[in-house]
Amino acid sequence: MAHENRILVAEDDVQTHDDWRETLAGWGYSVQVARDGVEALELINEKRPHILLADLRMPRKDGLELLRDIREMGIYLPTIIISGQGDVPEAVEAIKLGAVDYLRKPVDPPHLRQMLRNLAENVVIRDENLSLRRRLAEVGELGHLVGRSPAMRKVLATIERIADASASVVIIGESGTGKELVARTIHQLSSRRANPYVGVNCAAMPETLMESELFGHERGAFTGADRRREGCFEAANSGTLLLDEITEMKVELQAKLLRVLEEQRVRRLGGNAEVPLDVRVLAASNRDVAQAVREGKLREDLYYRLNVFTIELPPLRERGDDLAVLVQNFVQHYAARNNRGIVGIDDEALSALQAHPWPGNVRQLRNVIERASVISQGRVIRRLDLPQEFQSISNVEGGYIKLRIGTTLEEMEKELITRTIEFSDGNKTRAAQFLGVSTKTLYNKLERYRGHGDN
Ligand SMILES: Nc1ncnc2c1ncn2[C@@H]1O[C@H](COP(=O)(O)OP(=O)(O)OP(=O)(O)O)[C@@H](O)[C@H]1O
Ligand SMILES: [Mg+2]
Question: How many CB atoms lie within 10 A of CB 115?
Answer without folding.
Answer: 19
